Structures are given as structure tokens and as C-alpha cells.
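Risk mitigation, structural track. In case the binding assays with zinc ion fail to produce interpretable data, a predicted complex structure has been prepared as a fallback.
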Amino acid sequence: MKAAPDDQLRLLDLQALDSALDRLAHRRRTLPEIEEIDALDRKVTQLGGDIVLVETEDSDLGREQSKLEADIDLVRTRMQRDQQRLDAGQVSSPRELENLQSEIESLKRRQSDLEDEELEIMEKREVVQTRLQELRDEREQTATTLSETEQRRDTAFAEIDADHDKTTQQRSELAGTLPDDLLALYEKVRDAHGGVGAARLYQRRCEGCRIELNATDIGRFRSAGPDAVLRCEECGRILVRTPDSGL
Ligand SMILES: [Zn+2]
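Fallback model:
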């Protein structure tokens, strides 16, 4: 293939723009915020699950506490009723009196046992509620960090996208000035060689694969006309000659 030396040189500019676009795409894909957001998102979900578990524990304890309070109320009511009967002097038989007093004693013990149980539950509940508050605080903090990180990601995306648009525009203008066959060859080689289709020949070295030319290639390249499109024997990329090529 033949192409004007100027067009060949502009191929290097096109390569620089394409490489810049590749770097922008890579930066967009590998932005550290993306992984951070993923981890924070998982943490918020995990904390949400933990919160539901602890809330359930708290409401179970709450039900137990209410049941104990109802039991305590029953015992109190019964005790009051017995005490009223006693105070009213309605009980005359000594045996009935003794029964009543012993019932009051046993109700007192029952009340005290139930109150101890309630206290124990209240202490457990306090621990559970403290834990619940800690989890809710942690979820809130994590959600805040998440939204700050999302904001940072979006700012970075906007910068990258603006850069990308600008570079794409330049690329398309430059590509429009190149002959179709040269451009097609460049695209084909670039696709096959990790995004680099054209490389500078610098001091007898291909800047695509970094391998130095052998004597045969040097001889061949020296005798080639300036409009011959050269290819690296090692990597197949288009080699562009400049005054620094060492030929
Ligand atoms: Zn090469």
C-alpha cells in the first residue's frame, strides 16, 4: 500500500487520539468509586437485614414484657381485693382469715417474682435497643458515605465523558482527512493488536512492540519509497517513518 508521507504522519496523531480514548474508557471502567459504591451498597443491605433481626428481638421482648405486666396487674388486683375484704372486717371465721392472709402472702411472692422477671427483660431490652440504635446510626453513616461516593463517581463520569466527546470529535475530524484505504488498514491492525495500529519507527525500533529492526528490514526500509506503507515484521503494525527513524 502507498500513502503520502504526511498522511502517514497524521496516522500517528490519530493513534494518539485513539489511545487517549482507550485510556478514558479504561478510567471510566476502573474508577475506584465503582468498587467502593458496590461495597457500601452491600453494607447498607447487610445492616438493613441486621436491623430487622434486632427489631424482631426487641418486639419479642416487648411482647414478653407486656404479658408480664398484665400478669402483675392481675396479681395486684387480686391482692387489693383480698386486702379490702380483710380491711372491711368481713371475714370472721379464723380459718378463712388465715387462708386469706396466706393467699396475700403468696400473691406478694408471685408479684415479686414477676417483677424480677420483668426487670430482667427490661435489662435485655435496653441492651437490644442500644444495639439497634448503633446499627441504625451505622446504616445512616454508610448511606451518607454511599451518596457522597456516588456524587464523586458522577462528577468523574461527567469529566471523563466531556473529555471523551471532545476527543471523539477531534478524532473524527482527523480521520476525515486520511485516505480510506490507509484508514481501513489502520483500523484492522489496531483491532488485532490491542488498540495500537500505527507505531513510530524510532531509532530503528518499532514503538509498537519495542523490537529493534534486523539488518534485512533496515535494508528493505531504506530502499522503500517515502510513500510506501511499512509494516513491522515482528508485530505487523504500520510503521511510520520520521527523521528520527535511524534509517
Ligand atoms: Zn512492531
